[in-house]
Amino acid sequence: ILATGPAVAQDDLPATPSASLHGSVGLSAGVRPEYDGARDSKTVLMPTINLFYGDSLFFTRMTAGANLLRYKTEQGLSITAGPLLGLRRGRDQDDHDALRGLGDIDRALDAGAFVRLRKQGWQASAELRQNVTNTDQGATVNFSVGHGMPVGPKLRLRTAFDTTWASSGYMKTFYGIDAAQS
């Protein structure tokens, strides 16, 4: 399962109280549709590069954000939340025969917010993203739950399950067909 966004990456590193730049490099494996809306799926391997400035700012998997809210309960539940900016993938109709004639979809910039809950290797998160560069691409809300465990001194294994809700604007952009395309 592909692990995405700041919610997954930040659990993989201990909080750094000093304002220093640090990060990690890894490899993600996952299964996803050949293109949005495809019946067939493909397995993908992708490098994962995570950069952090202290425990406040992060850049991971084409998403940048800030942990503006940090709270830890007496039971050890860590809660963080803040704003984020992220790049949204586009689509090239020449990438697959089934997309020919459906038109290209430009990459876009999303703005939004996230909240993350962590405790003893477990993590749950939600991200709200609204497209801000192309008005017709809509909004998404991603929910994720996962668990990470160390398997070596510098190696961590993580499994995450994600699901996403998408607005009608997003659905129309990525799955709709207008009269000319029809």
Structure description:
Strands 1, 2, 3, 4, 5, 6, 7, 8, 9 and 10 form a 10-stranded antiparallel β-sheet that branches. By secondary structure, the protein is mainly beta. Strand 7 (108-119) and strand 8 form a beta hairpin. The radius of gyration is 18 Å and the shape is globular. Residues 1-16 have low confidence and may be disordered. The protein contains 2 helices and 10 strands; from the N terminus they run αββββββββββα. It has helices at 5-11, 168-175; strands spanning 21-33, 41-53, 57-60, 63-66, 69-72, 78-88, 108-119, 122-131, 139-152, 155-166.
Features:
182 residues; mainly beta; ten-stranded antiparallel sheet; 2 helices; 10 strands; 53% strand; disordered N terminus
From the N-terminal CA to the C-terminal CA, the straight-line distance is 34 Å
On the 0 to 100 scale, the average pLDDT is 84
Number of helices: 2
Number of separate strands: 10
Question: How would the blueprint of this fold be written?
Answer:
Blueprint: H1 5-11, E1 21-33, E2 41-53, E3 57-60, E4 63-66, E5 69-72, E6 78-88, E7 108-119, E8 122-131, E9 139-152, E10 155-166, H2 168-175
Antiparallel strand pairs: 1-2, 2-3, 3-4, 4-6, 5-6, 6-7, 7-8, 8-9, 9-10
Q: Quick recap of the structure?
A:
8% of the residues lie in helices and 53% in strands. It has helices at 5-11, 168-175; strands at 21-33, 41-53, 57-60, 63-66, 69-72, 78-88, 108-119, 122-131, 139-152, 155-166.
